[in-house]
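Class, look over these structure tokens:
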Amino acid sequence: MIVMVILLFFTIHIFGSDALSGGSQVVLLLTTACCSALAMGFCQVKWKKIEESICTNILGIATALLILLLIGALSGSWMISGVVPTLIYYGMQVLSPTFFLASCCIICAIVSVMTGSSWTTIATIGIALMGIGEALGLSTGWTAGAIISGAYFGDKISPLSDTTVLASSTTNTPLFTHIRYMMYTTVPTMLITLIIFTVAGFMFDHDNAGQAMSFAASLKETFHISAALMIVPIATGILIAKRVAPIITLFISALQAAVFAILFQPDLLQQIAGAESINAASMFKGVFMTLYGSTQLETGNEMLNSLVSTRGMAGMMNTIWLIICAMCFGGAMTASGMLETITSVFMRFMQRRASMVASTVFSGLTLNICTADQYISIILTGNMFKEIYRKKGYESRLLSRTTEDAVTVTSVLIPWNTCGMTQATILSVPTLTYLPYCFFNLISPLMSIIIAILGFKIKKHHEEDQD
């Protein structure tokens, strides 16, 4: 653990937000080698046992890797088809000076739910909203807090989010079971957050929302905005409600969006394909490029260009690579018995339900601080407590929810975490400046502990009801 923290510190210091493009993966492999060497040299653990543990870990997340690829295809098709732009366009219509902060939070929440990415949301619509906030004379801390609160709401509950998929797969919890169970802590937290931002909005008295309207107008000029495009997210919502398997749901949704792209955005597909005219070949090439690769559209608006760019399945490879390397590290830690040693420390404080959840929250936050990466923290937290929750008779969805409440949303509050560094750079607001106003991120871990104290919808295995 010490070796990993030191290596990650220097890697993130040198590479910054690009650490996830390979640096963090190399660190995990080096740490895996260190762990294996200690296990073989001092603990008399055979390499075969370590290798088998690593292979078992990777096999356990094979479905999650396939889901991540489909998420890449889905995010690309939803954007180019006009589904996400339509949702953004309609969402921006609710902007008003008094309710600007609450509107920021809601808009970013909608965009992040649809895209599954807090980073993309903040780097695109977040920058536009920061400009509007400054024009209205609002504190940059308040505006950034509203943007980040909304963005991480979607990052936490969207089936398109890699952290959501990672938390569910690490704890062996079905994806949509994990998402539904998070609603018991996430919805109350979001409502409290919106109330705070609404009350705060009455403190400001400005009426210049011209930048928002200009952005919306540019969006409408680039895409064919239509309420008919709402069919895609509605159909996806129905599939989720019907508990259709995630892989089937994501595949069908991406396919629907691809069809809608042909119907509503043929000119954009022509632009992506680089064809001289709209024909069957350009449609075919444009749709395929949208599903598997990166796309860039020229809209005449620099911020809009960034917003509508997509990465497709290829854009998920860094995350998949990171997960595989992290599972190697987790496998070595498990086979060597080191993970069991770490969990034994927390076992002393896990006598009752509330203390168990509180220990998980504290552990997740500590790992976020020490490892400076939310992906690694999610995997380590899930692996450390998975067996403890099972032995105590608690369902895996309680662990997956607590992990997200503790890790995903707090990563952006730590200045040296990859998330904290990235968002502070993108928004040009220091982490400690926006931290007091990220109410959703601050309340989420506390809400997880409060719900555990109340015991609401927390059941043992023999009384489990996955409603």
About this structure: The chain has 24 helices and no strands. The longest helix spans residues 175-201. Residues 462-467 have pLDDT under 50 and may be disordered.
